[in-house]
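Co-fold these.
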Amino acid sequence: MTDLSCPAVVTYAGGLTLSRIVAGMWRMNEWHLTPPQRLDWIEQALAMGVTSFDHADIYGGYGVEASFGEALALQPSLRDQMQIVSKCGIKLVSAARPAHTIQHYDTSASHIIASAEHSLRQLRTDHLDLLLIHRPDPLMHFDDIAGAFERLRQDGKVRHFGVSNFSRHQFESLNRRIALATNQVECSPLHVAPIFDETFDGLQDLGVAPMIWSPLAGGRLFNGDDAAGARVRAAIQQVADELQRPFGSVVFAWIMQLPSRPLPLTGSGRIEAVREAVAATQFSLSRSQWFEILRAARGHEVA
Amino acid sequence: MTDLSCPAVVTYAGGLTLSRIVAGMWRMNEWHLTPPQRLDWIEQALAMGVTSFDHADIYGGYGVEASFGEALALQPSLRDQMQIVSKCGIKLVSAARPAHTIQHYDTSASHIIASAEHSLRQLRTDHLDLLLIHRPDPLMHFDDIAGAFERLRQDGKVRHFGVSNFSRHQFESLNRRIALATNQVECSPLHVAPIFDETFDGLQDLGVAPMIWSPLAGGRLFNGDDAAGARVRAAIQQVADELQRPFGSVVFAWIMQLPSRPLPLTGSGRIEAVREAVAATQFSLSRSQWFEILRAARGHEVA
Amino acid sequence: MTDLSCPAVVTYAGGLTLSRIVAGMWRMNEWHLTPPQRLDWIEQALAMGVTSFDHADIYGGYGVEASFGEALALQPSLRDQMQIVSKCGIKLVSAARPAHTIQHYDTSASHIIASAEHSLRQLRTDHLDLLLIHRPDPLMHFDDIAGAFERLRQDGKVRHFGVSNFSRHQFESLNRRIALATNQVECSPLHVAPIFDETFDGLQDLGVAPMIWSPLAGGRLFNGDDAAGARVRAAIQQVADELQRPFGSVVFAWIMQLPSRPLPLTGSGRIEAVREAVAATQFSLSRSQWFEILRAARGHEVA
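Predicted complex below.
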């Protein structure tokens, strides 16, 4: 297993390269690691070719970026071996932001720029490789967002831009103003919506690869006790047995087989879980196996 | 309050200018005004900068346009100070149209032209500033509608064209054939659908401002006794208290804050209600306040 | 009735001409005809101007194409008087395909080409006039499908290409890569979805005519005993009485009146049923009649 090497993907014509498996830092502060342990975790991920790390300003109650930056400061030369992704646009009610009285969005140019600059300070880096608008904001001005992105790019603070949880049409409206590198959306065998609404079709049409959050459905694939969860778990396990691959690897492979070239995020602090995700880049399911899992996910056969 | 002055908006690149608040004439015949009283109402609206008047052939059982025209005939010089909007395409079962045996649509070129010409006679004017297709017709031919519009324009009878209650895609299909000035749709804190389906996103993308009917939800915002109505009313009232603004003004301001630049219609015969709408052009809500009303409207926080 | 002659329609700018009524061969093997009887049936259809015959690899458990080819071999000169349509992309669990363990899709270039070549052998012809992808496949690569289509065209094996059961956006994504001749979808007074979702609007916008499967709702229009079925049947019967036309003809005329220029398929083995469909090309409903059937179909009047 030590020779596992995660391939890289160019997500769009604008040239952003990310590792096919992206390390999600959402829960890093729940892993209860010391800064040297965090650095060790990052180095293990890099050694497997997992070079892309996914953040957001709000993760860990506005705390994860600083924890990552603290570790990175122990070995600053690692910065050139990795891609750092962050997000902005949500304002959480949080002890760290006493001014926020209700969870809401802010996609004004001033907030986008201030949030990105704050992320840079927390992460102890001079640039982000990718900055995403976290959620589609009913008050967003497409022109203003594109303008803020352009200014961040000109100032050398952010190299590529994207969105998260956008519909096909919201993506295309912003993409007409500034070329977007990705749309990071939820997908798993327990959340197949973007396969059947226009999200993935639209991205494939444009040649833009989605990033995928919660590919394991937040763990419900392993322990969900509802009917759908049990049915899907059994189908995945059968394919895992047939292929002699770990359960988690089969889920990641099932997602990566989609033609839009998805880049799934890991969420676990167990480095072994990252390894299982990377292992999924080395095999694929037969079409029959792929549709067995889809049938279990939807509860019915294709028409 | 006497110095209130409603701003104007250019709705699309084709250059139609309307007042940001549009006086909806739908129920004018229920106001039970004499022609001189109607003229007085119109003059009071104009004095506030509310220069756009929204009609449809069918309003008041095919009767409102004539009532308006009767008032306008008392002071024909007012025509140059106003914009007149009308609609066509619905055939109502009505004592005024004994040939109609079922409510249906007719978007044939011949009906569009005949209906517009009839509106001109009723309104006692030689041109409409804006003509809308009232509802998307399952039998509509996009080419035929565009052809009828072009002919009305060439004949000097209608200056700009639009639609009402069209989906994003229906709008774009017709807009590819002839540039449309607006899509008049329903929106209020009790009807937020166009904020989340593609309607407003699509119009913002194209730089076309929507017109909004029933911004006060037909009065249900004031007196609806269901759970949603009570919850939304309380949220609006709290913002009204915070801003020291009338309840109705807050609703109009909430809608006008949307990035697609909506032009809300009034519906009331009380000139004070029009004044409250115009007052809404002079302030805005904080983002927190805006999202407080949205949360009440949807019954849940944003993700 | 002997002088009935079905008109032809050019379905898209690429120039495919089909008869307005298309003979659906789906259930041909259930008609229990000998090869000479099948030939006679085909000749009767051709004599009415029904020159287009709709197949799929999977019809009749992978058996109908061979039955048709067997009849055609009795009179090979008929080939030049007809258009043959087939489909590919579904893999059925069938005694004829023991390798298939689950119903699934395959839109890989290799399967599309192999399936089309197999259809040619079964149908005993050297080319298809039209080949459709039978269902949208979550694993389809738009580029690969377009590539397979181009190769089949260059090899002279298929002249035009299309899809079936695709959404507007799936259609447009593939159509941007290779011009598509049609989208064959379900529509009837008991299945009005494509009238109100974007399917027909999108095809009208592009000038592409849809083909329609199950225009008679699989017979439920005649004998369905649910409330909707009874209500729609009564509305159709009233129009049939008013126009002095057969019930089935009214249904076909109602569909063909849609502005996207639909080409409905027949499904019956009774040549009289084909005649009733062709007769529908010779009259139309009044708008009031058309909306009477729509109201019955939806259970409510238009807004």
